[in-house]
Amino acid sequence: MTERHAIIIGGGVTGLSTAYHLKRLGYGEVTLFEKDGVGAGSSSRAAGISTGLLWTETGVLARKTALRRFREMSRELDGYTFHNEHGCLGLFSPELWPGREALLPLYDEFDVPYQVLSAAKIRRRWPALNPPSDHLGVLDPLGGYSEPPEYLAALTRKVRQLGVRLVEGTRVDELVLAGDRVTGVATSSGVVSADAVVVANYAWILPLLATAGIALPAKTFVHQRYVTKPLATPFVAPPVNADPFLGYVRPADGNRILIGAETPDRDDMKVGDFGFRLDRIEDDPAVLPAVLERFGDFVPALRGAEWETRKVGLLSFSMDGEPILGPFGKVAGLFVGVCFHSGGFSYNPASGYYLAEFVANGRTSIDLAAFSPDRFGAAETAEYLASTVPQRNAARRRH
Q1: Weakly modelled stretches of the chain, pLDDT under 50
Q2: pTM for the whole thing?
Q3: Which of 13, 102, 113, 307 has the fewest CB atoms within 10 Å, measured from its CB?
Q4: CA-CA distance, 144 to 126, in Å (whole number)?
């Protein structure tokens, strides 16, 4: 019997994780195509923050898988550590708190641990943080963060060891179909046949799917993150998703601080060609001062900090705020994993695992109907894609 062959398009965390889990499931041949180098897209520009305290039953169950696998992979992957020493903290203003409070019964139902902390308790536990007195925090004790370069390097080494054929510097230009089934991909080197194709190339996904006559209501938004130079005194704190301040902050390797920011007034970016590169997007010099003004009182160590790196990436949002993950009902053998918002890194151990289950077994261990690419109608998709949306009006869900 001929060994099955799966092609994965996109060498970010979703593509790498899918390849890793396919081989762990005993799947046959796996080839991963990346048009640049592994992690050259948004994965290397991510914050790596992870929490299981999400907004829907499907999201909560998926993140339970992801956080468990992060802890396991921290032991399995040489050179990688999942930092969950302090958990992951969500911060909420009085205006935002009712929306989070309404989700606490969901966490209770699925045995997801959390702690509600007053501002005073946050300050006592982590003196480096100074939240406003009327704010509340919800601590996810199983959450944490990864250092993206460390994780990408460790996962890349592992997939190579497992026998994945990782082809960098090769762009996939077209999905090849025979009737209602995908049969492979067309690259600059020719057509490569496959039994299954997983599309996980994030910001570039729309022009590629268009070659198969498929559209998804996916939009991309510019995202900026910054890392300080090493600090003079230790910065001890959990990663914080700080929606009241339109951003997040966390410790970074070498006693640094990483901070990330939304660009709420910036319209979605249309990526219409395969040649687009993230290094074309310039760092907006007005963003960092605005972020520091919002975060300055909350994280006093940021005052006067010197900055070492600035990175610009893209976030991918769906029309309804949930990821798009799974098979296309009208094209057999074609699968997609995209629109994880600012949480693609956090989802990846689960998104890769579920995509591998779909490819290898035809089904997943949890019900992922809520993430299905077939849940959107053609008319609403076309209308959404034709629109221009500032980030503040998109479905905002962090990590």
Answers
A1: none
A2: 0.96
A3: 102
A4: 15
